[in-house]
Amino acid sequence: MNPRSDIHDRLATALREARKARGLSLDAVARLSGVSRSMVSQIERGESSPTVATLWNLTQALQVDFAGLLEGRPAPAIEVTRASAAPVMQRPGGVSIRILSPAETVGEHEVYELSFPAGAALVSDPHAPGCREHLTVLSGRLKLRSGEAEEKLTAGDVARYAADLPHAISAEGGPARAILIVQGS
Fold first, then answer.
1. In the listed set 78, 104, 132, which residue is the last one of a domain according to the structure?
2. How many domains does the chain have?
3. Which pLDDT score is estimated for 72?
4. 24 and 69 share one domain
5. Exposure string over 97-124, b if 16+ CB within 10 A, otherwise e
6. How does residue 2 score in pLDDT terms, banded at 50, 70 and 90?
7. Rounded CA separation 95/89 (Å)
8. What is the pLDDT of residues 156-175, one digit of tens each?
9. Helix, strand, or coil here: 179?
10. Based on the domain organization, do 137 and 49 belong to the same domain?
11. What is the spatial order of strands in the sheet that 88-90 belongs to?
């Protein structure tokens, strides 16, 4: 067996698993590390040998121990994504979407923490047929619209609704936070 190819395979696997464990897309890793998306993809497929600087940037972005990267440690019994490591998307109007679910569940079961400044709205086009969303208000007040239906929600309220229609969530009267679960997007 060629030892160089074994190292490439182990490195590719370790980086890909670290990215997926943190629920990050290739684009997110590229943004966090400063390494191009195509280079990250090539490294994960074992098609490119990264420089030490590139590898350092990737391990820092993924919060992986540089020295222990190739030791082949078993996966931890409890997988933790630290608050500072969870990917966050910013939407127009200041809505912040923190991704809480692992990457491998995209399209099946997604979990997000939503933060709305006063008056901000998250407006969505219809998702795939049959898609449903479950919204739990943690703080503040939200107005929810799904198709023609509309509801006002306060802290502790849970709403379940069709997301295969145009839908929107907006903060009313002040900032608000919620957990959003998307099934079958």
1. 78
2. 2
3. 54
4. yes
5. bbbbbbbeeeeeebbbbbbbeeebbbeb
6. very low
7. 8
8. 999 999 999 999 999 999 99
9. strand
10. no
11. 88-90, 96-99, 109-116, 176-183, 132-139, 158-162
Between 59 and 162, whose confidence is greater? 162
Q: What is the DSSP string of 131-163?
A: -EEEEEEEESEEEEEETTEEEEEETT-EEEEES
Chain-centroid distance of CA 42 in Å reads 21
Give the residue carrying structure tokens 């030490």. 52
- Provide the token pair at 183: 């099934």
Q: What angle do CA 105, 110, 113 make, to 5 degrees?
A: 140
Determine the structural domain holding residue 179 and report its residue range: 87-183
Do 174 and 95 belong together in one domain? yes
From 17, 46, 78, the end of a domain falls on 78
**Distance, CA of 20 to CA of 61 (rounded, Å):** 13
Write down the pTM of the prediction.
0.61
Amino acid at 65: D
